[in-house]
Amino acid sequence: MPDHHEQGSSGGASCSDSDALNDNVKDAPNVAARRLKSYKKENQNLKEKVESLQMEMELLKKEQQMEMELLKKEHQMEMELFKKEQRDEHERMWQKFNMILQSLSGTSTTK
User: Span 75-93, mean pLDDT?
Assistant: First the structure.
């Protein structure tokens, strides 16, 4: 015939297993709260990273826009300088032409 102690222990979870399960159930709200706090912190960190990247992107866009404006101004200045050089060259050529005509005919022509 089985011993009374053997019959009691073979019926399922022991007292220590039951106590551990009760402790886990009691601690579940705390675990959930810690996890929620951790998730909120991680979410906040991610939001800050996104905001930082958005600000960096805006700065890069502004920098690119400023560079484009600078390049446009440089190009415009180069074109104006080129036009001025062309006008000056044209004027010099016209003066040479006039000097040659004067030397040949003794008269002056006007533009």
Answer: 97
